[in-house]
Amino acid sequence: MSEFGQQLRALRLGQGFRQADLADKLHGAVARSTLASVESGRTSPSPRLWAALENELPEWAACLEPAYASTQSYVAEPPADSPFAELAGPFVLVDARYVYVFREHRAPEEIIEVLRVRAMRDGADAYVLHLDGVSASGPEVEILWGGRITDAAPSHGDRKTSALHRIAFDHRLKKGELYSFAVRSWVAHVDTPPNCVGLCHTIPVSRASLQLNFFGPTPAKLWRFGPVVDGTLAEDPASAWAQHGPLEVQSGCVSACFENPRLNTEYGIAWQW
């Protein structure tokens, strides 16, 4: 068992937490099985786990910091020639707002993302954004405020068009500092557009909101869904209405807010034409 694992286990037991309780306390940033691996020494603590501890259990992080620093000295550095080798994090998303704009077609033509992040270490100066429906080349993405795009690359292992964009900030952040930026992207045309928009986060987020603006055809019915893992609820209006109720369109706009959404779990809005 590593020193970090021993100390983490002692803190957990001192609070009377099971590993599942600690995973819940960290809002699902890591799985219970991952905590078990870290405590046993089979796995080193990841930046994601450390960011969650600093955010949710800062007093634990203060105790664990020396042990965590020693584990990171043995972590291999990523290839220096990759523009995405340094993700410049970790971050916690304080607020994430997503606006999808529909005009002539039954698919969104543009997406506006407004993100407010908190740096979890000194020196963070960029954010890597994963954008679905856009390519890594061409004028499909622009910064509205809060930085500039320095690199872009296609995202592999996904059947749909997507890309990574590195957003360089206006300055380096201090630990705990808040920073906001906004990005507009134009979505590639698809012949058969989906009837839902989903959000799925891989870093902790306090609040996420989704807004759909319809300037052309408007769906006959809309509903919010989540949390789901397999997307079944998005295709089942009866189940969604029973859980949340239908959504009303006002002046061509409909929105939904999700407080403390679980990580790696989908939330969103679905509709029928």
Output the keywords.
273 residues; alpha+beta; 434 Repressor (Amino-terminal Domain); Immunoglobulin-like; 2 domains; six-stranded mixed sheet; four-stranded antiparallel sheet; 6 helices; 22% helix
What's the gist of this structure?
By secondary structure, the chain is α+β, with helices and mostly antiparallel strands.
Structure report:
This protein is of the alpha+beta class and about 270 residues long. The chain folds into two domains: about 5-70, 434 Repressor (Amino-terminal Domain), CATH 1.10.260; about 90-270, Immunoglobulin-like, CATH 2.60.40. It has six helices and 13 strands. Helix 4 packs antiparallel against helix 5 (about 60-70). The model is unreliable at about 75-90, about 135-140 and about 155-160 (pLDDT under 50). This is Helix-turn-helix protein. GO terms for molecular function: DNA binding.
